[in-house]
Amino acid sequence: MDGNRLPYHQREDGQRYFTNADMARMVELGMIDPEDRWELIRGEWFDMPSESFEHMDVRSALMQFFGAVLGFPGPWRVSSEGSLFLSRDTELRPDLLIYRADVGTNEMMGGDIALIAEVMKSSQNRDRMLKRPIYAEAGVPELWLIDLDAGEITLLREPRGRNYASERVVDAETAISPLAFPEITLSLSLLKRD
Fold first, then answer.
1. How many C-beta neighbours within 10 Å does residue 187 have?
2. Does residue 44 lie in a domain region?
3. Are residues 63 and 30 located together in one domain of the fold?
4. Domain with 151 in it
5. Does the predicted TM-score (pTM) go above 0.70?
6. Cα-based distances in Å from 101 to 39, 85, 191
7. Which of 22, 42, 133, 147 has its CA 20 to 30 A from that of 84?
8. What is the pLDDT of residues 108-127, one digit of tens each?
9. Judgement on whether residues 17 and 61 belong to the same structural domain of the protein
């Protein structure tokens, strides 16, 4: 690879795209700062917007809540904004990822994941239109889309192809439980600061 050019591949229709290996190489070569916030979605590079205070508060509360109730060590790990590789040209960074502790992050598949949550403040279109079908296609059993602007959570369950068979929208006061942990309940109002 020429150090002065971004690596890319070309689809049959002429569209250029990147792979996870391309992005890793660009970080290694110093072409991308490792601290930059970005995701790779089906080969397209997306810069992640700066995180609002409300987004960070809810994301941190999710981590603290699930970290406390699931404990450590245990059969599950809780992560936030870590790289999740679901195909050779997709690297997502979910706001909350709960996955089996006996599986390495570089070999994780959708079935190894108990729950993904995406906190949405300015990313509703990307999370709903681009990421949701990827999570379903990978077999992620449960996805929560936490819409801070609307004050509601969309619970998506039972992945079927590129969609979920079950979709339920709840308001900020409604208590919900993950399928994998029915004994655990929380609400959006519990996660938000007053």
1. 15
2. no
3. no
4. 53-191
5. yes
6. 24, 16, 25
7. 147
8. 899 999 999 999 987 888 89
9. no
- The H helix count followed by the E strand count for the chain is 5, 12
d(CA 192, CA 194): 6
Structure-token match 């970080």, residue found: 27
Q: Which residue has the tokens 């060590």?
A: 73
Q: How confident is the model at residue 5 (pLDDT cuts 50, 70, 90)?
A: low
- The token pair at 7 is 């690596």
Residue for token pair 């609307």: 150
In a domain, 114, yes or no: yes
Closest to 58 in 3D by CA, of 178, 147, 177? 147
Write phi, then psi, for 133 (nearest 5 degrees). -65, -30
* Dist CA 66 CA 192 (whole Å): 15
Indicate the number of domains in the chain.
2
Task: Give residue-wise pLDDT tens across range 150-172.
Answer: 999 999 999 999 999 999 999 99
